[in-house]
Amino acid sequence: MRMFYNRLKQYYSHAVPADHNAIPEQHQLVITEENGESLVIDKRLLTKAEVKLLETLFNQETDQFFTPKSTAEAVLHSCLLQQNDVPQKELDNLLPFPCRFIHFFIKGSLGNVEELEDALKNLFPVSPHLLWKNPQEGFIIQAIDKYFEDDVSFASVTDTITSDFFVQIFFYIGSPVADGGELASRFQWEAAAFESVKGISPKKHVFVEQEVIPYMIIKDLQDETKESMLSLLQPVMEDSDLMESVKMYLECNMNASMAAKKLYMHRNTIQYRVDKFIEKTSIDIKQFPNAVAVYFMFIATQKLRPEQH
């Protein structure tokens, strides 16, 4: 499949843009690999026969996904996916601001689309709108009101979807949007960011707000630079328990008690492993700049050495 994908990319290189977000959604033909990587082709640069052939080969049945279920969704589809101008006042009256986008990507063959939509809306309360970009990708608009739940276990959500629908799902939870004036620009930025990092790590199924930025930076580094960074972790690279504990410590804002709670172990165990990491690598991760640097290194290990995680 990978070889076929590369041949398509080479054959239709004239129609593959450097930035696919510059192409209005209705002119995009999206071909998604099993690993989550997408090839976006500008249909305007293909013949009708080529478009029909590719849509048939890759089962691009879009009607069930792109038919708006309400006037509101038709407006949102026009504004966000077709990138048409919609007055801010109309958007302000349309959506319950503040709100946020929950972007998702599905890896696998989805059976019943409506059942998945119902499941997502139940898992993310106060989500009046769900729109599809293509058969693998879509987004929810979730209101941030008095019924909003901020302590949702995203790991439980992904596990539920996987067990119920036999597909893998990846999420990007966006930042709050204050009003209609910033809706389209925020959506385009988040959609591009999610496209850049989805599937980058075998274990990373959920990104929250600006958490995507380190992954975007690491993704674009040269392999030589990544290897040079990772050489600093060489003394502890084979100690998976130590690596897991330190990573959780960093993700918990260097709070040993919180990390211990999430890993179901005693705080002293976390503290011991943090001290052991510092001793072996000579990197004091109790200092914020060093902690940031090591967190980037951990992301690089996920990208370069997925078999170890």
TrEMBL record:
The keyword Glycosyltransferase does not apply. It holds the Pfam family HTH_30. It comes from the Bacteria. GO terms for molecular function: DNA binding. Keywords: DNA-binding. Residues 242-298 form the PucR C-terminal helix-turn-helix domain. The keyword DNA-binding applies. This is DNA-binding transcriptional regulator, PucR family. It comes from Evansella caseinilytica. The lineage of its organism: Bacteria, Bacillati, Bacillota, Bacilli, Bacillales.
